[in-house]
TrEMBL record:
SUPFAM superfamilies: cAMP-binding domain-like. InterPro entries: cNMP-bd_dom, cNMP-bd_dom_sf, Env_Response_Regulators, RmlC-like_jellyroll. PANTHER family: CRP FAMILY TRANSCRIPTIONAL REGULATORY PROTEIN (PTHR24567), HTH-TYPE TRANSCRIPTIONAL REGULATOR ARCR (PTHR24567:SF74). Residues 8-77 form the Cyclic nucleotide-binding domain. This is Cyclic nucleotide-binding domain-containing protein.
Length: 153
């Protein structure tokens, strides 16, 4: 399997990365904390420094399904980049997490002001979205396909 293309900061040119980091702050989440909920407003995003986060998907009539687990270096959240700016998945800290948090509106402004930064961010986030959609699809087929073994509610 190909490695996940989830490292946003590593994909940015050094000047762009530094400019983006000027608008960040360190945050932490305890194990079990809900970081965001599917369908709610996506107004920030994170790059995980330590710990791990599960991404889950609401499945009507069943428990939420974990579709991917993120680890250090991974981008947490991409819904902030695309209208209507609402989370497509939910996220929960699997272990204590330290992360760098970014204000989505400010980053969108930076991307408009700096086309090099904007293109790099959009391209990398698109790669991450494609990877996550494929992961979610595979996980759901494993769980709910004709021979899936998903727990019943």
């Amino acid at each position: 399997m190909i490695a996940a293309p989830t490292n946003l900061l590593g994909a940015l040119p050094p000047g762009s990365r530094e400019r983006l980091m000027e608008h960040s702050r360190e945050v932490s989440f305890p194990a079990g904390a809900r970081i965001f909920e599917e369908g709610r407003r996506a107004d920030r995003f994170w790059v995980i420094r330590t710990g791990s986060v599960t991404l889950d998907l609401h499945v009507p009539g069943r428990r939420a399904v974990v579709v991917e687990t993120l680890s250090p270096g991974d981008l947490l959240g991409w819904s902030w980049l695309f209208p209507p700016y609402a989370w497509h998945l939910g996220a929960e800290a699997l272990s204590p997490v330290r992360a760098v948090e970014f204000d989505a509106a400010r980053v969108r402004e930076l991307c408009e002001e700096d086309p090099v930064l904007g293109r790099a961010v959009a391209t990398k986030v698109a790669e991450i979205v494609a990877h996550r959609l494929q992961s979610a699809r595979t996980r759901l087929l494993d769980l709910y396909g004709p021979y899936g073994n998903a727990p019943r509610p």
